[in-house]
Amino acid sequence: MASNSTEVVDANSTPTFFHTDPEKGSTAHLSGGRPIERVITPGGHPIDFSQPAIPVQHRKFGNPLPAALISFSTGFFFLGLLNIGTRGIVTPHVIFPVLIMFLGITQTLTGWFEMFIGNTYSATIFVCYGGFIFSYSLIYLPSMGILEAYTDKETGLPRPEFHSAVGIYLGIWAGITFLFIIASLRSSVAILSTLVFTCISFALLAAAEIGGSPSVKTASGATCMIAGLCGYWSAMAGYWTPDITYVQIPPIDLSRSD
Fold first, then answer.
1. Which residues pair with 37 in a beta bridge?
2. FRET partner for 8 with CA separation of 20 to 30 A, picked from 51, 101, 106, 246?
3. Is residue 97 part of a domain?
4. How many structural domains does the chain have?
5. Where does the record say this protein resides (predicted)?
6. Are 92 and 209 within 8 A, CB to CB?
7. Residue 197 pLDDT more than 70?
8. Domain span at residue 164?
9. How confident is the model at residue 96 (pLDDT cuts 50, 70, 90)?
10. Neighbour count for residue 90 (Cβ, 10 Å)
């Protein structure tokens, strides 16, 4: 069906559309023939006047990845510091509120935001890591009764099977992260290095739980810190953009075209 809309374009302004077709929702025929304007932003979307107190701007989807990567990196870097025994800290339970309230929630929300905008790759990784963080933290939450079920009544310490069970779970996540690595071979050095060191961290954490070796635990802490630093690199590569800062760091693209 032919449209009665007329587009007026000025090289120095945004396009303006004048609708005179009642079938298109126009009320021009009710207002003495005066046209109804619909202004389009440079991004191609109708201007939104629902927030009159702020300047009118083009509405678009934001990038949730920097927030997710910052939370991921902070959690892993903090865990690494605890595992290497920074300042003599031997009780790591302070990490669990950070994991749940910062890392877990942010990862899960980002995963679903990415799913909404059609990014299956990021959505899968962040939703899965969000689920891991919640499940891993709940193991140590007293109200869940999991740690208590494995505690020896005489010594008050977890039995060896507890550490074996946690080690197996961490080993499974090393395998899952390896699958993510395969899916990331054409992403960037920043993302790939984050996942590689995360995979190594999971493997060392699993070995430390099962074997009980302090040196392996320290090594796992070091790799957690490296994974966190790589994650910060990935986050800032997407957050430090030319429109907000003069500082940029390249993620080093690995994609190849035909």
1. 18
2. 51
3. yes
4. 1
5. Membrane
6. no
7. yes
8. 64-239
9. confident
10. 6
